[in-house]
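User: I'm putting together a teaching handout on how multi-component assemblies are represented. Below are the sequence lines for each component of a complex, exactly as they appear in our records. Could you produce the 3D structure of the whole assembly as structure tokens, so the students can see both representations side by side? Please keep the chain order the same as the input.
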Amino acid sequence: MRCLIVEDVDFEREMMEFFLADYAVTETACNGEDAVELFTRAVAEGRPYQLVCLDILMPKMSGQAALKKMRQAEAAGDPAHKAVIIMTTAMNSREDMEEALWQGDCTDYLVKPIILADLVALMRKYKLIS
Amino acid sequence: MPINEKLFRLLIDNAMVGVYIVDEEQLFQYVNPALTAMLGYTSEEVIGTFRFPSFIHPDDIPLLVHNYQQRLSGEIPSARYEARALHKSGRVVNIEIYGTYVDINGKRSLAGTVIDITQRVTAEQALEELNRTLEQRIATELALSREKDRMVMQQSRFAALGEMVAGIAHQWRQPLNMLGMSVQALQLAHGKGILTAEFMERHTEKSLEVLKYMSQTIDDFRNFFRPETAPRNFRLDEAVERVVVFFTSSVNTIAITTDVQNRATMCGHMNELSQVLLNILNNARDALLERQVEAPAIVVAVTRSDTANLIRVSDNGGGIPDELIDRVFDPFFSTKDAAKGTGLGLYMVKSIVEKSMKGTVTVRNTGTGAEFTITLPFPGADDCGVERKGEHT
Ligand SMILES: Nc1ncnc2c1ncn2[C@@H]1O[C@H](COP(=O)(O)OP(=O)(O)OP(=O)(O)O)[C@@H](O)[C@H]1O
Ligand SMILES: [Mg+2]
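Assistant: Of course. Below is the structure of the complete assembly, with chains in the same order as your input.
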């Protein structure tokens, strides 16, 4: 499985990599712009990501904006492939979260602090692992 | 001048005031038509049958008797007083009596006149009642407006508290995540058999660093919201800088710049100005994030005009609809849902600026967004005296 981790805080990005090392080949980006670029290139080169962990609050381009661009990029590639995009956020209210998420076509979300077991459960739910 | 009895009789019978004569026992000897009309009886019913007190309200009888005796005994020749009489129908008639001791054919008697003052008394009572209820109405209104003030105060205290809690919650979410990750990393590494001393050391250090930061956050918030007691001199640009740093620590997706062209000081409470600016910045943040503005930005400028120091906060969040812009300073005016806004932010801004800082605050749309201007007129409170020297050494 190929996974893209998008997170602006260095330590958190590194930990996410460590957590997912057993399940996926990981690549990372520290802002929305870089993430969209990596994602688009991967689609174009026919080796798309199966999983994207996307932080919502980031400088330059917000997670929501990045999410939209990624789905657009995906539409140009293999129609059978749709990445599981899980948004991670430190936003305070769950309401904000739902609104931000469901209008943007993300697959699911996790509120920080992130519990590895929850992330694994989501991967299982979306059949990324068995 | 000879005036005969007949003429007297004519005058008295037709007098507009009541006229009476009573004997020693207060038994009526004579009443004129005006008096019988006043009381609702005929003269036949009254004369030789009723005593004066029979027509008087029980509460006023002692007064009547007292006056009566004083005159009979010769203590005073005459008396003028008010009392309540009772009409035949039971209704109270307010009367004024002017009675005089007379000797009629060797018999000690009292003669007097009575006028009906019911209308005057009623009018006086109505006036009194009006005054009393007016006082009451004013008191009620006053109490109501005090209650409203208290509510607003209470609400704004809640709002400040809510702000503080929300701020801490926001500031803590990230470090909590780091701590959580460190702990889970240790567990994972141990499970994999790769938990080296170095790994352990790194995560312990990281955790302690994060804990320290979390503790610092609480102190920062406490200081920021702590009420100051004595006014002191502070520099406007320093207050601005402080708020911007505080604001940026929780909002990292908005480009915020300061433009300082004036380093004036003012005497007052720096925390109050901080609260004012923070409220304005928070509104700008809300507008920018809600409308998902590309390249969101806020500029805070400290400048001066010929007559005042100016602090201006502008954003590129699209501004405030023209039909609403006049109402943004009203208490409880909010376009946000109840969970996100109480509508007290700008109301507090206005009352702090006007009451505490003796300035004004205005808002306008710039075309790209909203612009709030705080005007602090010269000479204003820019000198706290002694403290000022202390501050600059
Ligand atoms: N910079 C801005 N851009 C756009 N609209 C604004 C801006 N500042 C204020 N407003 C409007 O003015 C309203 C009143 O602001 P105010 O700060 O008094 O209340 P609030 O932000 O809704 O709630 P509270 O501050 O009590 O949490 C807001 O709901 C918003 O509609
Ligand atoms: Mg507000």
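A couple of points students might notice: The pocket of magnesium ion (ligand 2) is lined by residues B 279, 282-283, 341, 345 (CB under 6 Å). Chain A is about 45% helix and 20% strand.
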